[in-house]
Amino acid sequence: MSSAPALRGPGGAWLPGPWRGDGEPRFRRVAALGGVYSNHIALRRALEDARDRKVDAVICLGDLGAFGPHPDRTAALIRENEIPVVRGNYDDSIARELEDCQCGYTDPKDNHYARISYEYTLANTSREYRRWMGSFPSTLRFRVGETRVLAFHGSPRRMNEFLWETTTPTHFLDGMAREHDAELLLGTHTGIHWSRSLTGGGSYVNAGALGRPANDGLTEVWYVILEAAGAGVAHEFVPVAYDHEALAMEMQEEGLPAKFVETILTGWWTTCLEVLPGKERSRGRW
Amino acid sequence: MTRIELAVLDAPEEPRHQAAPSVGLESLDELWFQVSGTVCNLRCSHCFISCSPENHSFWLMTREEVATALEASVELGVKEYYFTGGEPFMNREMEEILGDTLAIGPATVLTNATLMPERRAWALAELAERSPYTLELRVSLDGVTKEMNDALRGEGAFERCMDGVEKLVKVGFLPIITCMRSWPEERTEGYLDDFGDLLAGIGYDRPRVKILPPLLIGEEAKRTRGYEETERITHEMLHGFDLSQLLCTRARLVTARGVYACPILLDSPSARVGETLAEGAESDVLLGESACFTCYMSGAICSNTSASQGADR
Ligand code: SF4
Ligand code: SF4
Ligand SMILES: [Fe+2]
Q1: Scanning every residue of chain B, which has its alpha carbon at the shortest distance from the alpha carbon of A108?
Q2: At the fourth CATH level, which superfamily is domain A25-282?
Q3: Residue predicted with more confidence, A108 or B176
Q4: For A257, which DSSP code?
Q5: Angle B188-200/A108-123 helices, nearest 10 degrees?
Q6: How many cross-chain Cβ pairs, A to B, lie less than 8 Å apart?
Q7: Of residues B189, B310, B313, nearest to A104 (C-beta)
Q8: A168 contacts in B (CB within 8 Å)?
Q9: Ligand nearest A207 Cα, by number?
Q10: A33, pLDDT greater than 50
């Protein structure tokens, strides 16, 4: 297990995060991050950044592992800072030692790369962290100001459901918000951040991914800040510039595929492209 | 959870149905339209619903008929819209229908791409550009050579299809090329490379290719073989099975003659589940057909990726 030191918040306190006490916690300003994919360097940067922005909570939307190096370093940072996590498909697979990451690739090439990163992550996640991941809840509820937020990984009904901007109708999200009695739906899993105001007055926010860039040719990765604004809530997507070359180096040292390293260095996705809708795919390079 | 019930039927002349399990709709994620009925400009020897220029058993849908279902679909929370036939572009109102659809959600057209004049490719590109949602073109191409494809799809089909794909690529689409597997499974990777080379030759350098398992019904059953009587879904087979793998637990097909369980069983009267979409969404589906066995074995062959499905938490 890595000995990455825990981040300390202002005044030496723990970075806020744990859900203490009963009932629905309520915050003014929350940082939500997901799809960390073992990018512990970006994670540390994002946590520092969130602390500087004086958030009163950080929540992780799942998928701690995959893709990047040394999964235990990411797990340590999240756990030692007591950041609540909703279970991602990767966390679920690793915790239960399933055969694959549940992304559902059918293309043999996508499958090939998905298998490499899954096997690496499974082999390098300590037993203690695996057990811990099994305890992640599938959803979390809290309030930002007055707004009732439902946090999940893919969708409230299925942790590995992809909600892409160009394949998710507004009426579908409206129905989901109604069914789950939430005013803000908060997820990740696709790796590209986006948001939409719903017809019924609610909203959907996809926090994007901290683990790999958003397939836009930039090396920055993303998280989101939700903030109470009047009776409602505002959100701001935050780009995180981090030492991506150091990450690339670690990935190389760990023998992870050159294709993965290329994504970190170029900002373009190179694998697992099969699940991208045409519109998102054509904005990318591959 | 999806209900699994023993179907009680008063049709004793079809004993195989008596043992069949049935399932209800879990959520109407995919709405399919038999938009050109059974009318097609081609007459492929493996067509699973035996479409041809003369097959009018299902007629073309009008723009109004589609619009009525689209309207109902909003309330039902539909996520994706699929258009099939026959050949959807045999329907003269197809572009308007796509415009109506793309105003509310993503659309996928299953086409043979042989009716793709340049004007149409541009019109489609414009529709896609205007919508916040994706427009996917799924093109059937059943081989990497003229010989391989045309043996199934008819003389000249290969060239016309490649020409259509080239036009779509030129205007900015990344069509999904689907190919029915007609080779042993272990050779699939090699064929995927061949497809890559073939498509790169017409300027499609990052092709999306999807290999589908053959369905042994319709013309394909005559061409090869039908399923064995034993190859049917039984109650025992559904224990612990992820029902979302079956399209009928998350989709319905709207036709000019009512609503069906799925796009595969158009020829089975028992698969007609209602007159209106609301009715069809309420009704359970009998898993009594041999094609159901293919769904069970292969899962998710109709949707764009299998990734939108998966085990329930
Ligand atoms: S397989 Fe497709 S293109 Fe061929 S006849 Fe049937 S509907 Fe037409
Ligand atoms: S063929 Fe498949 S989708 Fe259609 S009714 Fe049978 S199991 Fe359901
Ligand atoms: Fe995920």
Answers
A1: B189
A2: Metallo-dependent phosphatases (3.60.21.10)
A3: B176
A4: -
A5: 120
A6: 98
A7: B310
A8: 79, 106
A9: 3
A10: yes
Is pLDDT at A22 greater than 70 in this prediction? no
B215 lines ligand 2 (CB under 6 A): no
List the beta bridge partners of residue A283. Answer: none
Angle at B288 between CA B287 and CA B291, to 5 degrees: 80
pLDDT beyond 60 at B5: no
Which of A102, A161, A279 comes nearest B308 by C-beta? A161
B310 touching chain A per CB within 8 A: yes
Decide whether any atom of ligand 2 lies within 6 Å of the B25 Cβ: no
d(CA B206, CA A4): 41
Do residues A191 and A212 lie in contact, with contact meaning Cβ atoms separated by under 8 Å? Answer: yes
How many other C-beta atoms can be found within 10 angstroms of the C-beta atom of residue B8?
7
Q: At what angle do helices A108-123 and A89-96 cross, to 10 degrees?
A: 60
Interface check for B210 against chain A (CB to CB < 8 A): the answer is yes
A64 band by pLDDT with thresholds 50, 70 and 90: very high
Domains in chain B and their CATH numbers? 26-298 (3.20.20.70)
Pull the structure tokens for residue A193: 């951040």
What tokens appear for B190 in the block?
A: 């090699």
Residue to probe by mutation, ligand 2, list B247, B260, B303, most atoms within 8 Å of CB: B247
Residue B13 predicted with pLDDT over 50 = no
Q: Quote the crossing angle between the two packed helices A40-52 and A71-80, to the nearest 10°.
A: 20
Name the minimum distance, in Å, from the CA of B4 to any CA of chain A.
Answer: 20
Of B73, B129, B130, B79, nearest to B108 (Cα)?
Answer: B79
For A281, which residue in chain B has the nearest alpha carbon?
A: B174
Reply yes or no on whether the pLDDT at B226 is more than 80.
Answer: no
The CA distance from A275 to the nearest CA of chain B, in Å, is: 6
Residues of A in contact with B106 (CB under 8 A): 166-169, 277
Per-domain boundaries in chain A: 25-282
- In ligand 1, the atom with minimum distance to the C-alpha of B41 is 8
* pLDDT tens digits along B50-108: 899 999 999 999 999 999 999 999 999 999 999 999 999 999 999 999 999 999 999 99
Answer yes or no: is pLDDT of A1 > 60: no
**Neighboring chain A residues of B82 at a CB cutoff of 8 Å:** none
Nearest-by-Cβ selection for A277 from B134, B172, B311: B134
State how far the Cα of A147 lies from the Cα of B3, in Å rounded to an integer.
35
Q: Which residue of A has its CA nearest to B71?
A: A171
- CB contact at 8 A, A117 and A67: yes
Instruction: State residue B122's pLDDT score.
Output: 98
Ligand 2: residue whose CA is nearest its atom 1: B292
* Section A1-14 average pLDDT: 47
* Neighbour count for residue B235 (Cβ, 10 Å): 13
Q: Does A170 have pLDDT greater than 70? A: yes
User: What pLDDT does residue B308 have?
Assistant: 35
- List helix spans (H) across chain A: 40-52, 71-80, 89-96, 108-123, 127-133, 170-179, 244-253, 258-266, 278-283
pLDDT of residue A50: 95
Other beta carbons within 10 Å of A237: 16
